[in-house]
Amino acid sequence: MTRKPPGELPPERARLVSALRELKTATGLSLAALATKTTFSKSSWERYLNGKTLPPRRAVQELCRLAGEREDRCLALWELAESEWSGRAAAPRPDEDTGTDASARAGLPETETGRPAGRGRLLAVLASVCAMAAGGLSVALVLLAGQSGAPRPSSPPTTAPAPRCRAATCEGRSPMTMKCGLAPLTLASHRTSSGAHLELRYSDTCEAGWARMWSTRIGDRLELAGAAGGRPHSAEITDGVAAQSYVFTPMTEARPGTTVRACFRPATGAARECFEARVRFRPRS
């Protein structure tokens, strides 16, 4: 079977790779350190995290363990990617429910949508990643055309992890690593002239905001204005996997009443596009 280079990864595999990268970030470990704490080598992890090779199921489990995250939803994403990799998802039988169980286990909101890559297939959208559903690292998945009418199995309720920062202490930190990515608010959305999708996101619990982008190109850059006119926080698309995934900026303090502003700088050199939103006061329950 011919393997595609990272820039041409199918969406199922690209979302899994994005999720694994978020998990690695949460561990704080280098590739060498990761190799010493798992049963897989440094070169193996390099291939897994760059989409060159599909990781074994056990590798996903070990990475989840090191990141302190639940593994069930990560494994659901892995099952979708493995089905695509092996070719089992290419020609589903007419009576086959392709991936519904795996998608249901991911338990992600249906407000995040994606485009089907093939008839009756289910795609993971976002990126990521499984980590948000498994403890705060962000991923989104939808059920697309071809879904059967059977009820989806529900995931057992879990206690949401406490955020690791608040307001000023979140400045410049990752919303996923700091557990601020659970049930965030979307303050504003914008689609650029190049077709990229942008959003300003906000966490009431963390009192911090960030921006994210997807449907991007290598070299695209998103900048989020820092608190009180400080240095902006930025995220850049560095490879094909990132271009197919959700990419987030670090956070900035954003208390109710303040304005969050982000600017997109396309790789083409075209004029930057900016948008902003004001954080509204919301009564606490």
From TrEMBL:
InterPro entries to which the protein is assigned, alphabetical: Cro/C1-type_HTH, DUF2690, Lambda_DNA-bd_dom_sf
Keyword annotations: Membrane, Transmembrane, Transmembrane helix
Region Disordered, annotated ranges: 86-116
Pfam families in the record: DUF2690, HTH_31
GO molecular function annotation: DNA binding
Organism, scientific name: Streptomyces viridochromogenes (strain DSM 40736 / JCM 4977 / BCRC 1201 / Tue 494)
Protein name (record): Predicted protein
Transmembrane feature ranges: 122-146
